[in-house]
Amino acid sequence: MESILVLTHADESGAVLSKGSLESVTAGRELAARLGAELTIGIVAKDASSAAAQVAGAAKRLLGVQGEAFAQARFASDAAACEALCRAAQATIVLAPHSSRFARVMAAVAHRVGGLIDTHITAIGGAANLEATRWFYRQRIEAVVSREKRPWFLLLDAGTHPAFAGEAAPAQAEEIAIAVELPALRTEVKGTRAPKQGAQTIRPDAKLLFVAGAGWTKKQPDGQIHVEDAGELILKFLGASGASLGSSKSLVDQGGEGNSVLPFLTHLNQVGQTGSTPRHAKGLSTCCHGEEPHVVGWRFVGERRAVSLDPNCGWTRGKADVVYVADAFEVMKRVNALLEDAASGS
Amino acid sequence: MSSAPQPIDPQPIDPQTVDVDRPMMEVDIVCAGFGPATGGFLTTLTRAWSENPADPAFESKVAPGMPLQVMCYERADDLAAGVSGVVTRGEGIRTSFPALNPAEIPMAAAVKEERVFYLLDPIGARRSALLRFGDIFLGLGRKSWAKDHAFELPWTPAFLHKRGGMVFSIGQFNQWVGSRLMAGGLAQIWPGTPVSGPIFDGNNGKGKRTVLGLRLADQGVDRHGIPAEGYMPGMDVRARLTVVGDGPVGAVGQKLDEQFGLPAGHARREWALGMKMVIELPEDSALEAGTVWHTFGFPEPEIFGFLYVHPERLVSVGIFVPSWLGNPQRTAYRYLQHYVQHPLLWRHLQHGTMRSWGAKSLEESGKRGEPFLTGDGFARIGEGSGSTNMLTGSGVDEAWTTGVQLGEAVLELLRADNPFTQENLAATYEARRRASRVERGAREAENARNGFQGGFVRGLVGMALAGLTGGRLALPAKIPPAPKQIRRFATYIAGGLTVQQAAKVALDCARPLHDALMSARGWPEIAFDERLLVTQQDALLMGGKVQAIPGFADHVVFLDRQRCIACQEKTCIAMCSGQALTLGADGAPDFEREKCVHCGACLWNCAQSPDGERGNIEFVAGSGGLHSAEN
Amino acid sequence: MSNAFHIVVCAGIVPDPLQTLEPTTGPSGPGIKNEMVLPAVLDPWAASALFEAASLAAKNPGSPQSPSKVWLVSLGPKAKLQQVMMSVAQKVSFELVPVDGPIGGFPDAQATAAVLADAIAAIPGLDRERMLLFGGWESATRGAGVTLQLVGERLGIADQFQGVDQIELHEDGSFEVLERVEGGKHQVSVCAGVPAVLGWATGNLAEPRNNPQVGMANMRTIMPALQKAKTATLDGNGLHYVSVSLPKQQRTTRVEKNMNADEIAAELVAWIGAE
User: Fold this and answer.
1) Best residue in A106, A131, A140, A237 to probe C by mutation, most C CBs within 10 Å?
2) Considering CB atoms only, which of A223, A292, A310 is closest to B586?
3) Searching chain A, which residue's CA lies closest to the CA of residue B540?
4) Could you tell me the pLDDT band of residue B466, with boundaries at 50, 70 and 90?
5) Number of domains, chain C
6) Multiple choice CATH, A3-156, 3.40.50.620, 1.10.3720.10, 3.40.50.300, 3.40.630.30
7) Are B595 and B463 in contact (CB under 8 A)?
């Protein structure tokens, strides 16, 4: 008989569970219902009691670790907290969000409690034998795995389940405060820092992913390079549409070679084989060939459109839903104008 | 009227003239390029050393007390990045490895069956009257002795036979040889390190040919070679002996030819581009490993083709597009797509999947393009030394053998403690080569392809004549320089279209001119199936995997852009294997290093010639290229 | 002042990211078709880690008695390791600690970590109190992001950072680390000092140039190390593959060649706004 522990953590406020955590709660509840397993929710937060209110009705048992030390996403304290929760829950299956905070510690936690871990899980299937789906070789190969050994830790990719939204209620969990013996803490988290160059362009929750390819910095029909115009068009579009900015590797790489390149782009924006694989409902690619190493980063992008001057580019080969053979400078100029009109009209 | 526009790109700096704080290193032997020839050379050396490492002959002169310091520099990112599916009799290779079992080398198989086909044209309308007549004549008997639009030669001419030989992938063979060499411990082979050229002796007397070593390519430069962020001047590697095995388009070989010229009466004017796919056959394929087909007659009469079956249902299928195909808009990739769809081949290939793809220039002048093989401090081996036998269509084993011959010569000189002078190298290496089957074969083949300058039928007659008489009889020929072999658009009519009309077709469909012209000439459009028939750009990714490490200069350089702008033919763009050359905004070709597979086709597919002999394009040292081990 | 670091970089070898990959199932489980034939490279994330390690060691050379040092620990088939080292060894100085073993992303990460931790523990002369354990935060094969963490845990290192793009040393031996977190931001942490584990993202360094002299110096130790490389077998840890497949996401693409920019813009804006 399986028993399930869902590990969750608070967001930056310290008292509210992160979106990924709430998604894991949904996954845990679904799984518990399917397996008829007992469900426990564990919380790591500065103020776990407040955070627990969000999931008060989600599970029979709520466990929490709280205190100033857990305001920070830090390996030593988080690993100790998760370890304590696992030992208290004694579950066979441990689900947790694949957040930067838990990805940093969960393998170590699994090792400490004699368990095994699989990460980047996109689906959990199977009944008698639990089966987890994940991707290998940068979203190129999909595999379904199972393990006999328990506890089995599964880190769920963001966006694979809806966030749990039960009614907030005061938590009645009997063991809300688990005591944790902390090791000497040698690391202090000072906060977060956005990329130096101007506006924040990566918006994981945006509906639309806008990808800029290397074509933006190449010679245009007049024989000249118009990087400044390109930058202006792109930023304006991001501002008007609320889209998240992605880039092909070749465009990001240009930054290192002394070429003039879009100043707000960094390696963090890179989508693809050696970049990220974001989840968005829609994706619009511009000035990008749509070559396979880039397109593997689009695995979790729903509807896909592309604007490219090359009618034979990769996007036309079944990688996008619509390809407009056109000059992206011209198209985006008009798109921006339309968005502007709409904004001023409303 | 405005004055003529100025060239946009500044001229690259000649690395030889840059005076910087350049690092220098001394070794005993330095090699340019790692292919079969250098493989043969280093194998011979390493083997002798490993038999008796204490032999004083192997003591380094530059690092006393140490064994010989032997370095080899290769521009490709991997030793396995050679491009060629090969069938070879492999006599030289088998002499080096008597116990060689093809099963040890991925993709290698013993030759099992060899057939030659004349391919009829299933599409029609583009052949000469004479050929059409021939096709009809052969076609009449289709039911009895021609099927699948192909006529099988009742016998394979002896000169073509590869009986007892092997089918393999050059990439895998190089990998196999390279790892044995590295494990052997004498030689170090460094991939990803292009050599910009030889270091000449400034005090060269008249008639003296001296090379002091190799200069590696500068890094941290912009595309024109001008120092930029992280500039690192290429090292001078000075050596007692410089071994030049960098192939027919290698920078070192080219610079040697520029400096020393070619022996009287020699010229490099005949070329071909070999382009092929590695295809995984469907599971029910009846083709057996070791099967070898040679074809001619299709897609153009002048284009020869091949199919070699490797183990595990892999097959290399390719064509050779020669310089004497006068069509200024010749284009290998489209031809290759039509070739694989010929009924004879398509029957086996149509449910296959392209695993990989590649292209390479072949030096087809053979003996006639042979350079000076030796000089003070240097020797030339392999394809770039004119070792390829154009009659038997064999080059790998010959290249390997010249490497072995140099290896044996070097051992002889080391043991006698004789210096690597021109005289000594001539007496040892050149003498061995002249007395060998490589030389005999090269002589037999010397005039075998003469006839092709006068057309396909004449070419076949000439080849048969030379082949069947061991080279004693051949057709005479006056072979024009490569740029002159390209016919002018003004005199070349494609399907009745003028250039303007074709250009309009190309513009309307937003496709390259050569591609539009193929369609205009009656070639059917390619029905892409995303498995085997894919766009050229997709092929580049499915198999090409071009590597272009940043920080190196462009290796394709247009000497006089005004000539390029004025050039109507722009054959360089049509023949560019990776579509790395495209029509730029100013009317001259643009070069994208990130797509270049280093096939070298641009070097000889240029209709413009500033000096009447060579084209307007320089192909200099460059890093990277195709990163595909299955080739 | 000059810190002396012992930096151990864990780095796998992976098929060149540009290769076409196809899964296949053999007697020992799933694998990549022709994996031994495909050209391989050092894992891109681990390569960043190696270049950062070399840069850190170069900036903090230590003293002649106690110099900074970089080791590269890699598990893979010996022949393949040798091949990849020919490219990597020209870039930065390191000593190779090879372990001859299976290739690819399908073996269990905890088993890989156990082998790597043992190999590191056995490095002669490694001062674990001065150790920085580097590696990629993810990989181009399994991409689980757990191997390095487990190696660190097995070696008892209590400060770990993942998705690192920058490390900045302070005079007192402490250092600031930038880790990638959600939303395109970096988390800034200060750690009191080594030992620590840093799983690198891309970092900020350009790939070093090929330097023939660095290559020659490295080769003196790399080839003997390869010849002596121990063979490791990996524990399956009960990992069972139910299926391994290559999904084809072939869409029906509408290619619009004749729309003008106004029409396209109008269609795009409508599409962006639609639910």
Assistant:
1) A140
2) A223
3) A291
4) confident
5) 1
6) 3.40.50.620
7) no
Q: Is residue C270 part of a domain?
A: no
Facing residue for A100 by CB, picked from C181, C192, C249: C181
pLDDT of residue B2: 38
Q: What average pLDDT does the segment B349-367 reach?
A: 91
CATH number at residue C160: 3.40.50.620
Whole-Å CA distances, B411 to B385, B407, B433, B568, B583: 20, 6, 15, 53, 51
Across the interface, do C262 and A334 touch by the CB < 8 Å criterion? Answer: yes
Q: Would residue B86 be called left, alpha or beta, if left means φ above 0 and alpha means ψ between -120 and 50 degrees?
A: beta
The answer for residues whose C-beta is within 8 angstroms of residue B579's C-beta and 6 or more apart is B512, B536, B537, B540, B595
Residue of C nearest to B221 (CA): C209
Report the predicted TM-score, pTM, of the whole model to 2 decimal places.
Answer: 0.89
In chain A, % of residues over pLDDT 90 = 68
> Chain A, 12-31: which have a CB under 8 Å from a chain C CB?
none
The least confident of A279-283, B69-73, B203-207, C125-129 is: B203-207
Say what the pLDDT of residue B360 is.
93
What residues of chain A, 157 to 176, have a C-beta less than 8 Å from chain C?
A: none
Q: How far is A172 from chain C (nearest CA, A)?
A: 31
Structural domain harbouring C142? 6-231
Architecture of domain A208-345: 3-Layer(aba) Sandwich (3.40)
The more confident residue out of B389 and B457 is B389
Q: Could you tell me the pLDDT band of residue A64, with boundaries at 50, 70 and 90?
A: very high
pLDDT computed for residue A293 by the predictor? 79
Decide if C113 is inside a domain.
yes
> Average pLDDT for residues A215-236, to the nearest whole number?
86
Q: Would you place residue B16 in the very low, low, confident or very high pLDDT band (cuts 50, 70, 90)?
A: very low
Note the pLDDT of residue B135. Answer: 67
Strand locations in B11-145, DSSP E?
24-32, 70-73, 85-88, 109-110, 113-119
Asked if B81's CB is within 8 angstroms of C83's CB, the reply is no
Find the residue in A nearest to C195 (Cα).
A186
- Per-residue confidence (pLDDT) for residue B474, from 0 to 100: 72
Contacts of A243 in chain C (CB under 8 A): 272
What digits encode the pLDDT tens for the residues A13-36?
999 999 999 999 999 999 999 999
| Chain A residues touching residue C242 (CB < 8 angstroms) | 126, 131, 143-146
For residue A213, give the nearest of A258, A241, A243, A246 by alpha carbon. Answer: A246
Average confidence score pLDDT of chain C: 93
- Chain B contact present for C17, CB below 8 A: no
- Binned at pLDDT 50, 70 and 90, residue A162 comes out as very high
Look up residue C28 and give its DSSP letter: T
Could you check whether A3-156 and A208-345 share the same CATH topology?
yes
Subunit contact C210:B193, Cβ cutoff 8 A = yes
Domain residue extents for chain A: 3-156, 208-345
Strands B187-190 and B70-73: parallel
Question: How far from the centroid of its chain's Cα atoms is residue A237's Cα?
Answer: 23
Q: Enumerate the residues of chain C whose CB falls inside 8 A of the CB of residue A270.
A: 202
What pairs with residue B150 in β-bridges? B119, B147
d(CA A155, CA A35): 19
Whether domain B15-95+171-265+369-441 has CATH 3.40.50.1580 = no
A190/C188 CB distance under 8 A = yes
Q: What are the helix and strand counts (H, E) for chain B?
A: 20, 27
Mean pLDDT on B149-156: 84
User: What ipTM does this complex have?
Assistant: 0.95
Residues of A in contact with C141 (CB under 8 A): 136-137
pLDDT value of position B127: 62
Residues of chain B with CATH 3.50.50.60: 15-95+171-265+369-441
C221 to chain B: closest CA residue? B185
Strand, coil or helix: what is A212? strand
CA-nearest residue to B107 within chain C is C37
Contact B219 C216 (CB under 8 A): no
Instruction: Count chain A–chain B contacts defined by CB atoms under 8 A.
Output: 42
